[in-house]
TrEMBL record:
This is TIR domain-containing protein. Keywords: Leucine-rich repeat, Repeat. Transmembrane segments: none annotated. It comes from the Eukaryota. It comes from Hevea brasiliensis. The keyword Repeat applies. The keyword Repeat applies. Residues 105-187 form the Disease resistance R13L4/SHOC-2-like LRR domain. Residues 305-444 form the C-JID domain.
Amino acid sequence: MEELPSSIGCLSSLVSLYLKGCKNLKSIPNSICELKCLEALHLNGCSNMEKLPPLYGLCSLKKLLLGGTALVEIPPDIVSLSSLSDTPIEELPSSIGEKVPPLYGLCSLKKLFLDGTALVEIPPDIVSLSSLEVLSLSDSPIEELPSSIGCLSSLFSLCLNGCKKLKSLPNSICQLKCLERLFLSGCSNLEKLPPLYGLCSLKGPYIDGTALVEIPSDTPSLSSLRRLSLKNCNRLQKSVSTSYIAPIKYREECGEYGYELNFCNCLNLDQNARGTIMADALRRIKELAIARCVGAFYPYFYVGLPGGKIPEWLSCEGPGNSIATLFPPGCFNNMFLGFVFCAIIEFKDPGFRVRDLHLICQSSFKNSNGYREASFASEYFCLENTIESDHVFFWYDGRDISYLDWLKQNCDMENEASFYVCPDVMDTDYMTKWEVKRFGFHLLCDKVELNKCNPYICREANFLEQFKETTNANNKRSREDFYSSNINGNREETHPKRLRQNFFMEDYFSNAQDGINYDATMVPSSSSCEFAPKFYKFL
């Protein structure tokens, strides 16, 4: 089709006009402005359309799709379309110009997509878009945003992916109380972020591939933060603790809770930053495990960062991708919440580009009462790049906790257990390009409840708080050193088939009145308690 008849203006009841992909269509008759009931006009893919007719008469128009056209300008009378709510103006040629027409009349506009355009600035009158919820400017040469963007009180999502000339964001961005998603991936010249303290709804800043050297210090004030993605930030050196973020509050109407901390390919992270990330991870995982026990439908946690060392706080770890061990009686009492898993991955092919990584731990438990299997899967680690060093990945999966009841019912028995971590991939060639160098797990327990019933369990219960106090006192030890000395006691060589010395049985005792005779030995402790029981089990 090359043209529409002028008589189309007589279709007084026409609600939708769908012309998507009409590549020979060059123009639309002026009579289209007579379509008072028209609500949707689809022109995306009309690659030869260079000009639009006047639009002022389309008083009911809510959706205008112009992606993939050859338009050289956006009609200035677009501001008269007071009902317009969805305008994806994307994939337009550079001839569209470097500016958009005035926007002051589009009071109902909810979505504005200007991806791939030649825009270098946004008009200040964007403040008039009081209903705007989504603004996307990806892959445009825009250099800055107007300070008036802070007045977009309804803005839910701001996408600036691939804006390589963007160097900064205005401080007024902290006024966006409804903003949940901030996409800055690929903004390779973005070296610094403004204060973020006012973004109380922000769940996931995507800051991958930027030039950031450090994360803003007010990041912990983001009470809704659930995802922090900074992969491929090669200049990033420092992180801030997210341990001060408000804990998860379980709500029955929203059963899913989760966190992602993606620091993959952030090769310049210092040891303090890596210790911070791991400490925060353990705290969040315990929160999620507790939330799962009170009914949260799908709590999950996963984190990735460069490194070749297993965290010291794991209960058991060893070389390779499998562990077989024996849990003594009393491990799986009512305070047991589940497992967290950790793997060191070596990527053998330096030129191999990894998009997604999905890890699954297959496990089995056996005692005199029977046998039970369980599977613990990570979410997909979104990497989308060549991985340049060994990486640490750890995860918690709370989808299926039926195994918990079975283990607790058999708490007074020895439990043989095996754990095997493997990739969730179908391509066998892919499996040859990476290897699990070390693998481990940690038993989670509700230490708050444990402390109420056993005074010996005070040693580790508040180690994060102890660390904060130590930091506030200007203690110069790194977090890694702190955890090594304050949590693990005397360091020992690990073995893949035994529980670590830092597998404290006091973490899992309910109390001395449960009728179980625990085989514990009293050993010196570096904590405030003079002695604390440790359990040693060798296979």
